[in-house]
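Folding Task

Wanted — backbone structure
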Amino acid sequence: VDYTKIDSRLGTNADFAALCKKLHENGIKVILDGVFNHVGRDFTKFVEVRNGNNSYRDWFHINDGNSCYNDGFWYEGWEGHYELVKLNLYNPAVKEYLKEVITGWVKEFDIDGLRLDVAYCLDLNFLKELHGHCKWLKNDFWLMGETLHGDYNRWMNPEMLDSVTNYECYKGIYSSLNSMNLFEIAHSLNRQFGPEQWCIYRGKHLMTFVDNHDVTRIASILTNKNHLPLCYGILFGMPGIPCIYYGSEWGIEGDRKITDLNLRPEIFLEKYENNEFAKKIEKEISQLISIRKSNIELTHGNYKEILVKNKQFIFGRCYNDKWILVVLNLDDKDEILEFNVPFSNKSLINLKNTNEHFTTFNNKLQLNIPAFSNKILKVE
């Protein structure tokens, strides 16, 4: 309804500015959700059109006919939702307006970036203009887009977005665990980040996740709850930018098939502070965050598939000839594996349990992997 005003149910603009300042003081960046594809029916310019003022008619996709609200004209709604009126991003006035809105957000709240809603719907030329404007405002301004499937390079490139949502690997992670077939996620990772001559996203940082506000919570979608920590082992070991959806750090559930509201509950901390399962998941994710932040191999290293079986998966991350191996066992029993590695006669330490050490001989490594476990092995 109004891009310049914080929803009054949340507070005032001054409240949000104070919050952003406090977040920045604590080293936390602020990314806003930029919804530039559509507006509500009470958006001021659309209200003008509804009242017969044709000055803003070209701000929208309007044609002869009638709407389901009996407006006396037809207009395009986002994916058939006529409460959400599609903006005409070919209109220079609309683009200038949206750029002014972003400028205002930077000046008033000092935001650090945007998550672009339904980026797959946005005009590509508009994305180029948006990129130029935002990088002019702040050269490290971050642009991430919501995309589903297709070639992510279409939106994620030096002229447009810095990152997009990796729905391909989102599906691959939970599906591989539920079907006990790790070849699925291994195929996606190899296709996206594998051998340099034919992979498609090497060196790029996609937004990776196991759940979000639009999909069933991972704790509800997994058929075996013992696999919940393992999905985060993949998420924090693979290339990309891991994203944790609020509440999932405690393993809370939420099934979208019933209602979207199940995905977005109000959280009461006391409900989880003494819950052993919740504390286990929180500890696992916290440890993985710490390991990832401390090891450039996991944030910027190249990807290499090492071994894939239905219930076991080992892949490597390499940065300047320094290696980390991510090891997973989905099975309900221990597994002993011997496999080739791309380095010889090296010692490795398990970053999740620093008392565990291993040694390679003649480019081979033997591991005992306990049931329902993962290891992160760093070459010492």
Observations:
- The longest strand covers residues 312-319.
